[in-house]
Amino acid sequence: MSQEQLAASSGLDRTYVSGLERGRRNPTLTTQQRLAAALGLSVAELIAAAEEVP
Predict the structure, then answer these.
(1) What are phi and psi of 24, to 5 degrees?
(2) Residue 40: which domain range?
(3) In this predicted model, what pLDDT tens digit does every residue of 29-53 receive, in sequence order?
(4) Which CATH number goes with the domain that contains 37?
(5) Which residues of 27-54 are buried (b: 16+ CB within 10 A; e: fewer)?
(6) What global pTM score does this model have?
(7) Count of domains in the chain?
(8) Coiled-coil regions in this chain (predicted)?
């Protein structure tokens, strides 16, 4: 999924999604919920997946 697609699915701005991916933004719980829903995951699954990334 592209940043643009994720942004559209989650209702976030693409530049914000880019900032999250680069570690320049810290998402609120609400943002995490929106991203998880857009990806078809729970917040716990989203966080677990993020913890696996070195």
Answers:
(1) -95, -10
(2) 3-52
(3) 999 999 999 999 999 999 998 888 7
(4) 1.10.260.40
(5) beeebbebbbebeeeeeeebeeeeeeee
(6) 0.87
(7) 1
(8) none
